[in-house]
Specification:
205 residues, mainly alpha, 9 helices, transmembrane, membrane, transmembrane helix, DedA_domain
């Protein structure tokens, strides 16, 4: 455990952390297997300890995410029919595709700004935006706005809570990953409750 703590302490001080953060944010947009939000929280804690620049942490994460989401958009744009076939292989994925497709062309800005808070939905939304030829100009504007809000928020969470873990980077990492998981769980639960209430109103009406 002491070795892990030492390695984490070195990583938080190193400027390589920004490069890792950039890559994680870009990859997370295409393959949602990398906890980029947790890494941003950790980098925010490093900034609180004076090891990183908070503004630079936010900008690096934003740029990485915008590049990743743009790549995902063009993947969708270049493989519309193939994407639709891939979506149909799973009922849940197909349902999300149809829901996101409809939402994009009715309230696209809101969808692109908030979908990143729903685990796995951001990739579907960006692929769908490309596959349905949603305006790239609108896409990039709303994407930049969305990542600015999201990463500023999580970086500030790490920065504000940084003092509590300033001398224990292992606890800082555990806290950041747990916080990212908690945020995703709360938002997903809220979305499901709202969906059930809406469905209940429709049924009652």
């Amino acid at each position: 455990m002491e070795v892990v703590r030492h390695l984490l302490s070195v990583a938080m001080v190193s400027q390589w952390l920004l490069l890792i953060l950039f890559v994680a944010a870009a990859v997370d947009a295409v393959f949602p297997i990398v906890p980029s939000e947790g890494m941003v929280v950790t980098a925010g804690m490093a900034a609180a300890a004076g090891h990183q620049n908070l503004l630079l942490v936010i900008v690096v994460a934003m740029v990485g995410s915008v590049i990743g989401e743009s790549a995902c958009y063009f993947l969708g744009r270049g493989s519309g029919p193939a994407l639709r076939r891939w979506m149909r292989r799973r009922e849940a994925r197909q349902a999300m595709y149809e829901k996101v497709s409809k939402a994009l062309h009715t309230r696209g800005g809101l969808v692109l700004m908030t979908v990143r808070y729903i685990p796995g939905a951001r990739m579907v939304a960006t692929l769908t935006a490309g596959a349905t030829a949603y305006s790239f100009r609108k896409f990039i504007v709303f994407t930049i706005a969305g990542v600015t809000i999201a990463y500023t928020y999580v970086a500030l969470l790490g920065y504000i809570g940084g003092d509590a873990f300033a001398h224990d980077s292992l606890k800082a990492l555990a806290f950041s990953l747990g916080l990212a998981f908690l945020i995703g769980t709360v938002l997903e639960t809220s979305r499901r409750i709202a969906g059930r209430r809406k469905a209940a109103k429709v049924t009652a009406g």
